[in-house]
Amino acid sequence: MNKISIQIDDINLEVPENSTIMEACDKVGIHIPRLCYHPILSNEGACRICIVEVDGIYNYLPSCSTKVFDGMKIKTNSPEIRQARRDLVELMLDNHPMDCQLCVRNGNCELQALSYKLGVRERLFEGVRKSHELDLSSDSVVRNAEKCIICGQCIRVCANVQGVYNLSQHHRGVNTIVTPAFLSSMENSVCVKCGQCINVCPTAAFTEKDYTEKIWDALNNPDIFVIAQTAPSIRAAIAEGFGHPPGVNGTGQMITALRRLGFDAVFDTNFGADLTIVEESIEFLKRMETGENLPMITSCSPGWIKFLEHFFPELIPNASTCKSPMQMVSTLLKTYYAEKNNLDPKKIFVVGVMPCTAKKFESRRPEHYNVEGGYPYTDAVITTRELIWMIKAYGIDFNHLPKGNFDLPLGFSTGAGDIFGSTGGVMEATLRTCQAKLTGSQNQELEYFDIRNVEGLREASIKIGDKVLNIAIANGLNNAKTILNKVKNKEKEYHILEIMACSGGCVAGGGQPIPDVGEFIYPLDKNMIKLRAKALYDIDENKSIRRAHENPYIEKLYEEYLGTPGGELAYKLLHTHYHPRLPKGI
């Protein structure tokens, strides 16, 4: 790539000719303030906080969207520039709620941090402020328009990355508001509950629906047996909430912290991941024999499933009927585990600790209720962020906790269960079991490196025995569209597809820790995602059992309770169905 010469604050340097001013400044360690910018989203230039001066140009220019040219001379820190930036932030603050101490983003809010850095110490403008009702309609995502600064990041992530296009700006000027189409509520829209709008929002205009008070009440009720189950990717991210870098394995401390919070038992959603692979592999091999409903599409990502129901309902028969690992574990806790331990399922309270805000929605789906008893199998879902807060609120010193172990039997898992949290992990776990079933040999490869760390989309052909399986892996729903359109248009014959709603998979879910604003690391940062994923693959590599169907407690579960994999009782308890949806989120 050709390079050109420019000058930034009297520093001469060469940069690629297509660079933006912001990119050039980052290269020489000059951090220009920004709010609407995100490296994986299109450049909006909406907030104007990143303005700079360029010799020969009268107006200030937004550095995030202005390309450099040969001989350009840039000033980033003149008194006039600093004052203009501060004026812009002051105007935002003067139309912003004055409730920082009560806000969930207090201490990790980009607007708050920017106000401090720019020296904003008072509110200068009085007058009528915007007033909007809190949108609490969704089971997963809360929208607070009063805290919106119209940066557009939520709109762009919903469109550019997820391909849902649920959000847009309505009205003009001071009355501008970001909402679903026709000023609808979040629930009465095509929102897929993925929570990526929460991850990229610089304030708290989007947050997850809070069920923590319900959980505190259950923990304080001596008549309720409270159980936690934790998803694979939680262990690779929870330590970030206590000062550790991404990719630190916090499994043992997490288990101990949950016990100190008062949970009566702590199980591993990885057990459900292993069980999902056993059931899903049986389902897939049957479809291979009959040729019906191929390609089979994984169904463990609830955001992806809601996307399917809204936008590709004709492909619902292709989705695996297996419940998600969370729902499999919850169902077994209120059937198998309850019977085995003489517990009343109505007095069992199951909490899912998930990286995913869509899991809150999944837990409320009518399909996941016990019809006879009228109770949900999963009573409440909290995100990684919310568990971090609960641990801190309880005064637990996470970093000095001894390492605990999951309870049995639903706490033992193979390495295949751990890698569910990363994109490609479900596919790899499936292939490990399918190759054993198809070849009758346990001595074949365990690692499928070509399908790890997928950035967006990957297709491959995998030879197992005398069969060649055409597979595809997509993360981020815009990438899913590409594959699904190929299926619809019969452009290529696939056998199995893995689709995850979030970029990078569950390790970058809508409920994972948001990087501290002082670190200049963005949510969905590729390196951060890879570090979290590596933690899961390291756990897998160090386990003695790495194929899901070899989990001895799953073998015992079928012997004692479920019968045959894919059999009548297994199908009744571990499988579900989906249905087309109108825009209303019902």
Key attributes of the depicted protein:
586 residues; alpha/beta; Ubiquitin-like (UB roll); Alpha-Beta Plaits; Rossmann fold; five-stranded mixed sheet; four-stranded parallel sheet; 18 helices; 19 strands; 33% helix; globular
Structure description:
The longest helix has 22 residues, at 269-290. This protein has helices at 21-27, 79-93, 110-117, 153-161, 196-200, 212-219, 251-261, 269-290, 302-311, 325-340, 358-364, 384-393, 415-418, 425-439, 477-488, 526-541, 552-562, 568-574; strands at residues 3-8, 11-16, 51-54, 61-62, 73-75, 141-143, 167-170, 177-180, 206-208, 225-230, 265-268, 296-297, 348-354, 369-370, 375-376, 380-383, 457-464, 467-475, 496-500. The strands form six sheets. The chain has a five-stranded mixed β-sheet with strand order 2-1-5-3-4, sandwiched between helices. The chain has a four-stranded parallel β-sheet with strand order 11-10-13-16, with helices on both faces. It has a four-stranded mixed β-sheet with strand order 12-19-18-17. The protein has three domains: 3-77, Roll (Ubiquitin-like (UB roll)); 141-210, Alpha-Beta Plaits; 213-574, Rossmann fold (3-Layer(aba) Sandwich). The protein is α/β, with parallel strands linked by helices and 586 residues long. The model has no long low-confidence stretch (mean pLDDT 91).
